[in-house]
UniProtKB/TrEMBL annotation:
Residue segments, region Disordered: 1-60
Protein name: Uncharacterized protein
Basic and acidic residues biased stretches: 1-18, 30-60
Superkingdom of this protein's organism: Bacteria
Amino acid sequence: MLRDHSPDRAKREADKAFKPVKTQKPMNDYAKDQHSFNENRERLKTERLAREAKPGDRSE
């Protein structure tokens, strides 16, 4: 008998192939609001930094 085809190894390989998918808990309203706020803040920060880095008319 071949050792490579033992039932234990087959079970381990099957468990590896069919491992359960991690599911995330649905976000509550507070978490959704925080997520939206953080995304918007990061977007605005990126836009501001891009404007500041662009050479232009500055009256300094």
